[in-house]
Amino acid sequence: MHLSTPPPEESPSPSSFDITQTYTHLLRTDPSLTMPLAAIQSLLLLLSHTPPSTISETLSLLSHHSQILSSSIPNPISLSAGTDLFQRYIVSTLSGGKEGGGGGEDFQKMRERLLGSGRLFTERGKEAREAIAGIEKAGGFVREGCTVGTCGGSRVVSKVLEGAAGRGVRFRVVYVRDSRTVNGEEGDEHGMVKRLRGKGIPVAVIQPEAMAYSLREVTMMMVGAEGVVENGGVISRLGTYQLAMLARSAGKPFYVVAESHKFVRLYPLGQYDLPIKQMVVDFKDAEGVEIGGKGGGDDEEEQEAVDYTPPELITALVTEVGVHTPSAVSEELIKIWY
Length: 338
What we know:
By secondary structure, the protein is an alpha/beta fold. Helices cover 41% and strands 14% of the residues.
């Protein structure tokens, strides 16, 4: 496999690299990319098109464009996991070089090795879903005769369930429809329901208001995540927190499957402690004029809202490097960053 690049007519020149356009193009043209990996690939393309001549220029260039990218996306939490991880990787790789040194042959060789290793990193990131499916197989979470509840159309959850079906495990799925989808067939915005049914898995699609009613049919919950934060909680599509609370009240295990490159250095204390603006609680007067609410603004772009699920509601986190309790996430972050 090779690194996806924008078509020639959209390719930025070295003097005017548009990292936001590159990021959105990569996500649009490669469905297998997660937001963190798209951010990393964008930074790799930045280094390819705008080659710095010193270590300090390299770090400054990456930091500057990472900030541009984060500020241009309404919800940059997931992509920031990628930009932060890549910058940390760069610092670690270049730590042996002389700060501000000349751009001689040694630095050029180091840069070429850096780009090659970065591309390898993104390819391994794409393979993480297959690895997670293997971890699930070893742990045996999806068992014969069980019913899995899920929501959000997570690609990694889909891969895990398809893998279980491929092993001959017979089970059912209850899929919670996105309430904002009114015209799409059964709210299947990512095609997850169609893919699962195509694998012979019986799927029931329910409205969000039927979640509590349907819990009796569910053996366990399994969801994906946009980001895994430092305390072991997760940031995911709006409604995940509600689903986790219902699962806890009914005594059902709640599993989160996510790639390790989604581990993000955030420590939210609650729903309104996320570093993004969201128009979820939207108060209006009799004339329909907005009079205030939690998050957002008059110029707020339409975006998928997210919520924060605290670690005490999560049974376990399944990643490509193993199964973790939420309390072990801090240790994994230390391994990644230090």
